[in-house]
Write a structure and sequence with these properties.
It is a single chain. 28% of the residues lie in helices and 28% in strands. It is built from twelve helices and 23 strands. Strands 2, 3, 6, 8, 9, 10, 11 and 12 form an eight-stranded antiparallel sheet that branches. The chain is globular, with a radius of gyration of 22 Å.
Length: 383
């Protein structure tokens, strides 16, 4: 078992305090957005044996187990993160596996450099993800019912929103959502900036259900993504609750600290709330234009105390143990690779002691027992 030393990514939207408060460190004064735990080549965790990606590359079957290596290939199929949002992330969607393979092959064929700012597909993999709240956590997830969105927009009293209101009421769900999102993202930038300014003033004045969108506009004044965001469900997670984001579902995280796990991919199509490239035609090909309930997940407890967040994805499995003091250790030995992350208290994992924010990689088949008192997240795969 390897203690992990992990990279913190300083993205501009990151909180300046949340990760430091979790780990007990002094705030650096700079944004700290994500702590990456895994073998992603962009920021692999470091072990006493070297970078985790190189450790796995040296003997994939030993580190991952035969079943996982056969099913997912010679790489760790998930990436675990602590995510700390101090400002809204970009409004985005992720492709399904077939779309990712097709898009990646097309850009490779056309010779689009992998680091080009207009490149959409950095790899040929899909990127389903799960976010579990450690603090109250605000986000946007999936389209709201078009009729409800029409009422929300109309009540703002902004004349330039009337065409969107009419579209939402006049067409079937798929067509209504597609036409409005297309219109918003294709509008004249100056005219859209004026609309967003009016919407922002009205949202601040009215408050209530409009408060999250006024907050978004504060960070992204004039951005058409502010209007696009109003098409989506606003969700507030309480600690321990989670959201699963599947392919084609538009979403954004707004504020809070959470544990995030995803398939090992960088593929993102952006809809707004970002200075980065927005490829409207490709985005419209990927988005699933249907109203959905956000589907807040709560863990399902098993008899041994493991609380599992059920998802339809095999590349990752996230569970949680709330370990009381003075109880028998839990045997977590498994035939697949694991990353263990402490988020509260102090957890004993094999020969290691993990404090909040500390983590360990457990190779397949390696015996490991854990005990508290503390809270432990377990990231693994279904193989």
């Amino acid at each position: 078992m390897d203690r992990l030393t992990n990279t913190i990514r300083p993205y501009a939207w990151g909180s300046t305090t949340a990760i430091a408060e979790l780990t007990g460190a002094e705030p650096s004064g700079e944004p700290q957005a994500e702590m990456w735990m895994g073998a992603h080549p962009g920021a692999p965790s470091r072990t006493g044996r070297g970078p985790l990606n190189e450790v796995i590359d040296a003997d994939p079957e030993r580190e991952l187990g035969k079943a996982a290596a056969d099913k997912f290939g010679p790489r760790l199929p998930f990436l675990l993160k602590i995510l700390a949002a101090g400002a809204p992330l970009s409004l985005q969607v992720h492709p399904d596996l077939a779309q990712a393979k097709e898009g990646y092959a097309d850009e490779e064929r056309r010779g689009v450099p992998i680091d080009a700012p207009h490149r959409n597909y950095k790899d040929a993999n899909h990127k389903p993800e799960l976010i579990c709240a450690l603090t109250p956590f605000d986000g946007l997830c999936g389209f709201r019912d078009p009729a409800e969105t029409a009422d929300l927009l109309e009540a703002l009293g902004v004349d330039s929103l009337k065409p969107y209101v009419d579209l939402l009421r006049a067409h079937p769900e798929d067509a209504a959502l597609r036409e409005v999102l297309t219109a918003v993202l294709s509008a004249d930038p100056e005219e859209m900036a004026e609309t967003v300014t009016e919407v922002t003033a009205a949202a601040r004045r009215i408050g209530g259900a409009y408060t999250p969108y006024a907050g978004i506009a504060h960070h992204y004044p004039g951005d058409p993504g502010v209007i696009a965001a109003m098409l989506l469900n606003h969700v507030r997670l309480q600690p321990g609750e989670a959201l699963f984001l599947g392919a084609g579902v538009p979403h954004a995280y707004l504020d809070g600290l959470g544990v995030e796990i995803m398939a090992n991919s960088d593929n993102v199509l952006r809809c707004g709330l970002t200075p980065k490239h927005v490829d409207v035609p490709e985005l419209l090909r990927i988005v699933r234009f249907s109203a959905t309930d956000p589907g807040v997940l709560r863990p399902e407890a098993s008899p041994d105390g493991e609380e599992v967040y059920e998802t339809p994805i095999d590349e990752f499995r996230l569970s949680r143990f709330v370990l009381p003091e003075d109880t028998a250790p839990h045997d977590l030995t498994a035939a697949t690779p694991q990353i263990l992350l402490c988020t509260a208290g102090v957890v004993r994992a094999g020969e290691l002691t993990l404090k909040p924010g500390e983590s360990a990689f457990v190779p397949a088949g390696e015996k490991v027992e854990v005990s508290g008192p503390g809270t432990l997240f377990r990231a693994s795969v279904v193989a």
